């Protein structure tokens, strides 16, 4: 359905929520926001105790927050079961027949899972895991397509107090292997394959490769999804449908302490291998729930859809956990946005009457490029609220999203957060915050966000600095799995007792926070974090490569593209075939999402005299074709001209 309410938008446009929206929202004025925010910062115990009381605690906490920087314990002394809150609580409240998940597979198959059915399925899987010897605190690695069983597997782990560690289906066997080793998982839940643009991604084959020489994993549960040919290892591999048929659909949810580990999710940093970000139970539950309540304005009759994959934090917090804590009906879709054509998302919104839609700017830009005709065929009038996450949204994409998808009537919540933060941290509240394209606006309740300079002084209006959070928040990471030192060094060492996000940001005169981008060597490719160090180490692992440097280049759709500079070993010839080989090699080592967009051969890399690669210069070169500023500190400044030539061909 085309819109007639088309607003022309630029970065100075300010849009206020409509009276109708505000009237029904939980926070309907900026005064109310300011006073709630003030209370949440000055008296977090009262604020969070109040929010937490919406949820079920088998034993109430003795203390809301115990903070010994940088270690927080939230809801100390409490006992709860996360899964009980996501599932059983709603069944007990008489909403068992409500649809929890309305699922659509890529080939077009459809399924609705009610809260009651979800309870049965989760209990069955919990019983299967028990039968396989999985105990509280054991790690279970999940490598699944976007099917309800992915959520069921996560919730079954949570129910037992087992710690899930999801690996996104687009990651390679080597990535799985690293994560298996780091987490010492005892069990794996996977599927034969996953549909992606009519082809099958061989998940079980990848898993088999990752499991070679592994001695921690005792059992592998395999869901039959694509019916592709796979190998089953006797005594280790078991079919999901056979095992769940052997057990009952009841299981009593045990209460665990609030700081009981819930999951590990690996994410890229500026150095070394991905870090296992550890999240725990009570605080994460309250944080994700509360953001669903206020930012996504989730209500009883909403049909909510987040297009992320459960392999990313967005899929954890805003598919599996938050929306189920809030008890909404959500849509889950398995496949690509352009299958069979670019209208797939809009057909899903029309068919299920989606009211709240949450996606990424990169997807929006791809839709714009595909053309409006794919949108115009569908009626999107059910939508009332839109959201974005993953990267800053540029005004052109914002305008299209607002007008074309939202019909000029839906507020857009641009949510800034991270794997580490667990829940959205900076975002408009849809019923009150004046919204502007490109800014995530204001800190959420309990979030004491500031922008500091290198000396720890707060930046002036519009002065760029480092984004930090000065107080603990319930859904914060608790550690890097198995590496407290890395936790302290990465997040808490810039300023005493203050969390450094790793993002550059600035605040305008109205208090809106603009995220400028990562300050470390982390790329944001299609809203996903990739460490340049990881790609570089994949490249140098190839036997033709002597040295490599990886930088991001602005990209129209992806936000950033991966550009590699490679110095070959003596005697190796620079050929286009080798470029293809290196590209595929990175795909094999990390996963298809990390495949470089461009590879340039370079006789040498720009380094300081102490041997540090100056990625800043390479970044400038790929973005503008030239280098401004002083290059006299370089060990060999002639490499710049050679690299310039390799870029321009
Ligand atoms: O740079 C910020 C960017 O994504 C990073 C976090 O990535 P990840 O842990 O993979 O989580 C992504 C989904 C929560 C941040 O450090 N980022 C995320 N959301 C935004 C954003 N940048 C600007 N605006 C956003 N709304």
UniProtKB/TrEMBL annotation:
<dbReference type="GO" id="GO:0046872">
    <property type="term" value="F:metal ion binding"/>
</dbReference>
<dbReference type="InterPro" id="IPR011904">
    <property type="entry name" value="Ac_CoA_lig"/>
</dbReference>
<keyword id="KW-0547">Nucleotide-binding</keyword>
<feature type="binding site">
    <location>
        <position position="545"/>
    </location>
    <ligand>
        <name>Mg(2+)</name>
    </ligand>
</feature>
<feature type="domain" description="AMP-dependent synthetase/ligase">
    <location>
        <begin position="93"/>
        <end position="473"/>
    </location>
</feature>
<feature type="binding site">
    <location>
        <begin position="414"/>
        <end position="419"/>
    </location>
    <ligand>
        <name>ATP</name>
    </ligand>
</feature>
<dbReference type="GO" id="GO:0019427">
    <property type="term" value="P:acetyl-CoA biosynthetic process from acetate"/>
</dbReference>
<dbReference type="Pfam" id="PF00501">
    <property type="entry name" value="AMP-binding"/>
</dbReference>
<dbReference type="InterPro" id="IPR032387">
    <property type="entry name" value="ACAS_N"/>
</dbReference>
<dbReference type="GO" id="GO:0003987">
    <property type="term" value="F:acetate-CoA ligase activity"/>
</dbReference>
<feature type="domain" description="AMP-binding enzyme C-terminal">
    <location>
        <begin position="534"/>
        <end position="612"/>
    </location>
</feature>
<keyword id="KW-0007">Acetylation</keyword>
<feature type="binding site">
    <location>
        <position position="542"/>
    </location>
    <ligand>
        <name>Mg(2+)</name>
    </ligand>
</feature>
<comment type="similarity">
    <text>Belongs to the ATP-dependent AMP-binding enzyme family.</text>
</comment>
<feature type="binding site">
    <location>
        <position position="518"/>
    </location>
    <ligand>
        <name>ATP</name>
    </ligand>
</feature>
<feature type="binding site">
    <location>
        <position position="526"/>
    </location>
    <ligand>
        <name>CoA</name>
    </ligand>
</feature>
<feature type="binding site">
    <location>
        <position position="338"/>
    </location>
    <ligand>
        <name>CoA</name>
    </ligand>
</feature>
<dbReference type="InterPro" id="IPR042099">
    <property type="entry name" value="ANL_N_sf"/>
</dbReference>
<dbReference type="GO" id="GO:0005829">
    <property type="term" value="C:cytosol"/>
</dbReference>
<dbReference type="Pfam" id="PF13193">
    <property type="entry name" value="AMP-binding_C"/>
</dbReference>
<feature type="binding site">
    <location>
        <position position="540"/>
    </location>
    <ligand>
        <name>Mg(2+)</name>
    </ligand>
</feature>
<feature type="domain" description="Acetyl-coenzyme A synthetase N-terminal">
    <location>
        <begin position="33"/>
        <end position="86"/>
    </location>
</feature>
<dbReference type="Pfam" id="PF16177">
    <property type="entry name" value="ACAS_N"/>
</dbReference>
<keyword id="KW-0067">ATP-binding</keyword>
<feature type="binding site">
    <location>
        <position position="314"/>
    </location>
    <ligand>
        <name>CoA</name>
    </ligand>
</feature>
<dbReference type="GO" id="GO:0016208">
    <property type="term" value="F:AMP binding"/>
</dbReference>
<dbReference type="InterPro" id="IPR025110">
    <property type="entry name" value="AMP-bd_C"/>
</dbReference>
<keyword id="KW-0460">Magnesium</keyword>
<feature type="binding site">
    <location>
        <position position="503"/>
    </location>
    <ligand>
        <name>ATP</name>
    </ligand>
</feature>
<dbReference type="InterPro" id="IPR020845">
    <property type="entry name" value="AMP-binding_CS"/>
</dbReference>
<dbReference type="GO" id="GO:0005524">
    <property type="term" value="F:ATP binding"/>
</dbReference>
<protein>
    <recommendedName>
        <fullName>Acetyl-coenzyme A synthetase</fullName>
        <ecNumber>6.2.1.1</ecNumber>
    </recommendedName>
</protein>
<keyword id="KW-0479">Metal-binding</keyword>
<dbReference type="InterPro" id="IPR000873">
    <property type="entry name" value="AMP-dep_synth/lig_dom"/>
</dbReference>
<comment type="function">
    <text>Catalyzes the conversion of acetate into acetyl-CoA (AcCoA), an essential intermediate at the junction of anabolic and catabolic pathways. AcsA undergoes a two-step reaction. In the first half reaction, AcsA combines acetate with ATP to form acetyl-adenylate (AcAMP) intermediate. In the second half reaction, it can then transfer the acetyl group from AcAMP to the sulfhydryl group of CoA, forming the product AcCoA.</text>
</comment>
<dbReference type="InterPro" id="IPR045851">
    <property type="entry name" value="AMP-bd_C_sf"/>
</dbReference>
<feature type="binding site">
    <location>
        <begin position="390"/>
        <end position="392"/>
    </location>
    <ligand>
        <name>ATP</name>
    </ligand>
</feature>
<feature type="binding site">
    <location>
        <position position="529"/>
    </location>
    <ligand>
        <name>ATP</name>
    </ligand>
</feature>
<feature type="modified residue" description="N6-acetyllysine">
    <location>
        <position position="612"/>
    </location>
</feature>
<keyword id="KW-0436">Ligase</keyword>
